[in-house]
Amino acid sequence: MKCLVSLLLLSSLLIFSNSEELNVFIIPHSHCDPGWLNTFEGYFHESVNRILDSVTNELTADPSRRFVWAEISFFNLWWEVQPHEKREKFKKLVKNGQLEFVAGGWVQNDEANANFDIVLDQITEGHEFLHRVFGVVPKVAWQIDPFGHSSLTPSLFSRVGFEAVVLNRIHYDLKANLKTSQMMEFVWRGSQSLEEKSEIFAHLLHTHYSAPKGFDWEEYSPSINDQSVHERARDFVSQLTERSRAYKTNNLMVVFGDDFKFRDANIQFTNMDQLIKHINKEKQYNMKIQYATASEYFAAVSKSSVERKIEFPTYTGDFFPYADNWDAYWTGYYTSRPLLKAHSRGTDSILRAAEGLYALGRTQASINDTQSSSVHWGNLFQGIRQGRRDAALVQHHDGITGTAKQFVVNDYTRRLDDAHSAAHTTIEKMIEILLTDKEEPVFNFDLKTFSFTTTDDVYTL
User: Whole-model pTM?
Assistant: First the structure.
């Protein structure tokens, strides 16, 4: 019997043997939807506040740990209520590379319904915050939950400055084919006419954005201890070895998290710590595991591809429609909740008009200082900014898609109404300044041609 057990153990270890060591990059994350089954603020108070508190404490406790965060709408809400000491602690985590902001937009936008200007706005809103507070601009985009991917994404993201993008939801049959042909990483070209200018390096997640099966300790997975670590490590290594076959290099990205995970970051990290330590110690696994950020992973892939002269294929076009099964094509959201979709577009338009007129009015008033004393510029600006943020929030992949609960859609609608009202207020005040100033206008066009009524939803020069 002992000989049989030994033979079985030896044969099972052979699946892990390889001429080249596999480098595994564990990327802890929490996918936090700014509205879906609960409202944006409801989710914040229910989960997100606790997640960010818990993660901050665990990263501070161990410099080897890493975490990535995507949704700046949530992070901004958390940041506003943190004391100075905690802000400084978090800034240190960002500075030393333990925490990386990925994508860094206000939300993780839908790619089928959101038009390009509002996508750009929501990215700008998030990046401006990150640059102002931390002096960083994300280099890795993170689109792990939108229901399919648009060719606009590589075209726009490459121009914004992203160097790589992480994708997930594509047609199940196509993903299966890409796995067998080792094409889960590729150069994604959005436009045939723009060619290289519309390209970005793309990584497709192997198995959704969840932790490997059986290794989510906030979902009642058995804790790791001295008695179980060997068996659990073998299971973990087996899953990772199978995943690695879908990629060309000897580097493997393994996202570690799921929806609103890491509310208890301690239990997640302490169990994973034991696995990492055990596997790295056991040479028969031929595997090196480390916590990593997305940028650290892509740097390793870039280095490997240069050293081994690995060429990646080019994919041109989009990934629509998305299907996760033969009878589950995700296409209804293209047209569901049409009033919300229309309201979003209309709000985006009026906000853009308000922003333009605010810039004209502020410039006119600064030169001919006749009306500026009666205008609360700061209040108007804050109204526009909050309107931009509320409009951006709706571009979330469970917002404008219409896939959220009705009471959540009601909350989105209220926010769009508030943004609409703030834009109207700004436009009315700017028209008053621009048309009643007695000095010569700074601008060459005739502002009297501007049509305006209090009931118009669209304003044109």
Answer: 0.89
